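hey so i finally got around to running the thing on that chain from the lab meeting. sorry it took forever, my laptop kept dying and i had to restart like 3 times. anyway pasting the input first so we r on the same page abt which one it is
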Amino acid sequence: MAEMGWDEVTVLRKRQPKASQLKSQSAINAAQRSGVGVETTKKFSASQNKQHQVDKNTAVLDRETEELHHDKIDKSVAQLIQQGRQAKAMTQKDLATVSSFQIS
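ok and heres what got predicted. didnt touch it at all, straight out
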């Protein structure tokens, strides 16, 4: 060791590249240039929290064609409710309280 000059460098241990460095685009390009087989895959829903799985099969839901919506009520029903409420001198809050609806 006494014969080593100032310009010589001894590397005792080379650090392994980090996982993020191996996955970088430049590392992938370098591996492809050197002729190494490179396989890249994208993980399905990798960044989502999928702890709880849906019990019903999604294919069954996709095949389902039933329209799930409420039928619309004519405006005359709303006018009848309003007229009845005003005839009894009630506010909307009073009507909601009497009919056990949540006040919004």
